[in-house]
């Protein structure tokens, strides 16, 4: 099992969700986050005073998939989140040791 | 406020009737005109909307999340306190005969509103209505100063300062300009309070910003406004109310009053566009905050002029006021170096001075204005207006300094301590927070 974490531009969320559904992913956890990478933030100007906002709003997606679905899921995210402009985000894939469905007690891939 | 040449009677002329309700035997008993009464009553209501919630929301949006309630509270309570004080002594000292001191201050005949009854009349409206309309001017004017010392002044000090400032600044200024004092007799072209309201609060703002010092984090992203939607809501309510603020000064439901309202509307629109266009060209993006600020700048600039200019003059004045105020907040403010938090001087002070100086120019009949009193030239009127502006600056600076010093002495300083400022005034001063992000 794999835990896929993706940090993407907020406006790409709907497209990414649709792409994940088409790829066969059943569930996704979405969190509104702030952060920065190479993009380094943006400037806001209020009445001539310039404020550099270093932490930009992003969306963090967390998806748990079976190993067999990992490539399709990551491809779906990468394609749907892509704009080609700075700030498109990052994607991380990690091995997942265990998953438990709280309601039924199912374990592993059955719990996804 | 109102000073007519050939235009007609106005608030000032009528105000002189206050305190002399007992007409002589051969004078006709004054009659209430229901149309005038309804009109001024409506204007009064929208002027109240300017302050509550207009001004409070306008400023509230400019504050940080942790200070939003303190701003709302300061405006709300200032307006409440000023209203009560105006009823107790402000009205009498502003609008009754001061005897030997008439040139600078009114009298005590109507202290505690003694002598005002439901049958009292000022011009063609009930005196209670005249009182209410003037009270609302007294309520909003000091509250504008809150924007200068926002996010760092003790609440008690705010209330003490406002009390002293109303007493030694606003009331004498209002009497001198509107209550038959020496400024009134000069024939200054200042229809609705360019000097008494806007220039006055602008100078008070500079004094306050100087005495209180800069907010912690001044010039850093931490001071960015938190809610532009709130600022637009408040600014728009200010705009609505301003039509009543200026139009109501005619004290009559007349074509002249409609001219004043049209002028006010057009100057505001032009101010918004002027600021927006300059900012767009200069910064590459037109901002909402800029457009709203431009509208306010146009409204401030037209305040002295609205009874003397024509509609095209009003548009020109607004188009000038917007860019001038862009310059004042963008260039002049950094040069001065004071943390006038919400640009009270940059918008009210600068546009007030600009409007006062340009009123005679746009009052020229050749460009659709209402002209000057008989025998007076443009140069004469410019001298009179300029002199009144200079006096107002000096008077405001001195009295504001005294008011702040008194507040500091009585409250153990003006400024909250570092911990309270960092935590935010909402929690430290009022024990509340503006926003709860979870239940």
From TrEMBL, chain A:
Gene Ontology terms, MF aspect: ATP binding; enzyme regulator activity
GO biological process, one term: regulation of nitrogen utilization
One GO CC term, this protein: cytosol
Sites of O-UMP-tyrosine modification: 51
Stored PROSITE patterns: PII_GLNB_DOM, PII_GLNB_UMP
Annotated Pfam families: P-II
Keywords: Nucleotide-binding, Phosphoprotein
Highest rank taxon of the organism: Bacteria
PANTHER family reported in the protein's UniProt record: NITROGEN REGULATORY PROTEIN GLNK, NITROGEN REGULATORY PROTEIN P-II
Name of the protein in question: Nitrogen regulatory protein P-II
This protein's encoding gene: glnK
UniProtKB/TrEMBL annotation, chain B:
PANTHER family recorded: AMMONIUM TRANSPORTER MEP2 (PTHR43029)
Regions that span the bilayer: 38-59, 71-91, 128-148, 155-171, 191-212, 232-253, 259-278, 285-302, 308-329, 341-362, 382-404
GO MF annotations in UniProt: ammonium channel activity
Protein name: Ammonium transporter
UniProt topology in membrane: Multi-pass membrane protein
SUPFAM superfamilies: Ammonium transporter
Family recorded in the similarity comment: Belongs to the ammonia transporter channel (TC 1.A.11.2) family.
Compartments in which it is found: Cell membrane; Membrane
RNA-binding found in the keyword field: no
Domain Ammonium transporter AmtB-like stretches: 38-435
Keyword match Glycosyltransferase: no
A GO cellular component annotation in the UniProt record: plasma membrane
Record's signal peptide: 1-25
Domain of life of the source: Bacteria
Alphabetical keyword list: Ammonia transport, Membrane, Signal, Transmembrane, Transmembrane helix, Transport
